[in-house]
Design brief:
Radius of gyration: 25 Å
Helix content: 25-40%
Number of strands: 24
Bound molecules: glycyl-adenosine-5'-phosphate
Distance between the termini: 36 Å
Number of helices: 13
Strand content: 25-35%
Length: about 450
């Protein structure tokens, strides 16, 4: 038996269950009955989410000389959101069911109330998705602030600050990872659409004549990023939006889509935002957001190519794509075939027995590996059960220390996917694991 994500109708429930049972993702405020559509990331989940973000940062910032990072504020004044167009147009069509009075996002319900089955609704009205709050102790118009619904605007409003403090010229980008907030009418499907989530966005500023070429470039790069981190090609596709479906700022948008259990849906969007944002903020603030090209003696407003991904949504896709049930020695096991870079623990150090003789050498192995890999150390239960527990959370390597280790100064390295075991000298262990994870 080998259930693949495409064929298992219970996949979503199984992953949600595993996520809770093994400490990846918990319902927020659960002891108070839960707070709908918000989630907390547990000990394993926080490791994995950090790994997703680290993999993105490495590919988008660390490995490039044409992208720099930023960490902008979450709270912002209305002026930013007026200029960006969000106050006016960042809305979804809201309808009320005339029978049960539940509220729904009109474009998500196909004319039938998911709660009671009725088909009569109120007229749709535009519902703004931004969370509004008060900044400071004095209430009133001047104190209004918004939680950002995307990280992007911080990159635009800091365009001059970044340009004047680093020696870059278009094409160059500003990258940011951080929380965003949207008062979604119908949050759904676990962490796929939530009201509080994390984004990973790049705003890549280019000469207008190069915009189309860079748009295509980033679509390709972003598609490959998911492939490289283990999502199979047959679960990924690109979907180019029709002109009529484009957001208010976009001259072209292509989504990277993933085959979720409910069908193809968005994982990430890559947009050509043209000069919309820099022009809007220039006009509204009175500060020109432009680039002066000295060689050409020309001032221009760069176009923006924006790959915008969700960290929490990507983590969910990686979990779904990695989940397998297979058979090992006549027993069904659950295994997360996560890329080692994403796994919450990369190595588990497992002394065969709790006997004190093994403790010294086991701690020595842990000290050797811990600075280089995220390690778990587990002495409870039988070794078979401990292997299963590590398989289920995606740990690529289990290191077993047995009584022979005291004699031969070697340990057994077990591979998660093949379950193959190999004896490796402790002196060679770090180099062995580095080689197997393509790190020299
Ligand atoms: N700056 C452009 C922008 O924010 P978006 O398509 O609205 O574009 C980008 O969002 C990505 O952020 C989405 O592809 C998705 O991965 C993630 N995302 C958006 N809304 C989300 C939500 N409510 N819950 C979880 N992730 C979300």
């Amino acid at each position: 038996m080998d259930s693949t994500p495409a064929t298992d109708p219970d996949l979503l429930d199984k992953v949600i269950n595993l996520a809770k049972r093994r400490g990846f993702i918990f319902q927020s405020a659960e002891i108070y009955g839960g707070f709908r559509s918000t989630y907390d990331y547990g000990p394993l989940g926080v490791n994995m989410l950090r790994n997703v973000k680290a993999a993105w940062w490495r590919a988008m910032v660390q490995m490039r000389q044409d992208v720099v990072g930023l960490d902008a504020a979450i709270l912002g004044p209305p002026a930013v959101w007026a200029a960006s167009g969000h106050l006016e147009t960042f809305t979804d069509p809201l309808v009320d069911c005339r029978k049960c009075k539940e509220r729904w996002r009109e474009d998500k319900i196909d004319g039938v109330c998911p709660n009671c089955g009725a088909t009569e609704f109120t007229e749709a009205r535009a519902f703004n998705l931004m969370f509004k709050t008060q900044a400071g102790p004095v209430e009133g118009e001047g104190a209004t602030a918004y939680l950002r619904p995307e990280t992007a605007q911080g990159m635009f409003t800091n365009f001059n600050n970044v340009l004047s403090t680093i020696r870059k010229k278009p094409p160059f980008g500003i990258a940011q990872i951080g929380k965003s907030f949207r008062n979604e009418i119908t949050p759904q499907n676990f962490v796929f659409r939530t009201r509080e989530f994390e984004q990973m966005e790049l705003e890549f500023f280019v000469p207008p004549a190069e915009a189309e070429q860079w748009y295509r470039y980033w679509i390709d790069q972003r598609y490959r990023w998911y492939l490289d981190l283990g999502i199979p090609a047959d679960q990924l596709r690109l979907h180019e939006h029709a002109a009529a479906d484009l957001s208010h700022y976009s001259r072209g948008t292509t989504d990277v889509e993933f085959a979720y259990p409910w069908g193809w849906d968005e994982l990430e969007g890559i947009a050509n935002r043209g000069d919309y944002d820099l022009t809007q903020h220039s006009n509204a603030s009175g500060t020109k957001l432009e680039y002066f090209d000295q060689a050409a003696n020309e001032r221009y407003t760069p176009y923006v190519i924006e790959p915008a991904a969700g960290a929490t949504r990507a983590m969910m896709a990686f979990l779904l794509a990695a989940y397998r049930e297979d058979e090992v020695e006549g027993e069904t096991r659950t295994v997360l075939r996560l890329d080692w870079r994403l796994a919450p623990y990369q190595v588990a150090v497992l002394p065969l027995s709790k006997k004190p003789e093994l403790e010294g050498v086991s701690q020595q192995v842990l000290s050797l590996l811990q600075p280089h890999f995220a390690c778990d150390y587990d002495v409870t239960q039988s070794i078979g059960r401990r292997y299963r527990r590590q398989d289920e959370v995606g740990t690529p390597f289990c290191i077993t220390i047995d009584f022979d280790s005291l004699e031969d100064a070697a340990v057994t390295v077990r591979d998660r996917d093949s379950t193959a075991q190999e004896r490796v000298a402790i002196d060679d262990l770090l180099a062995h694991l580095r080689a197997r994870t393509n790190q020299s």
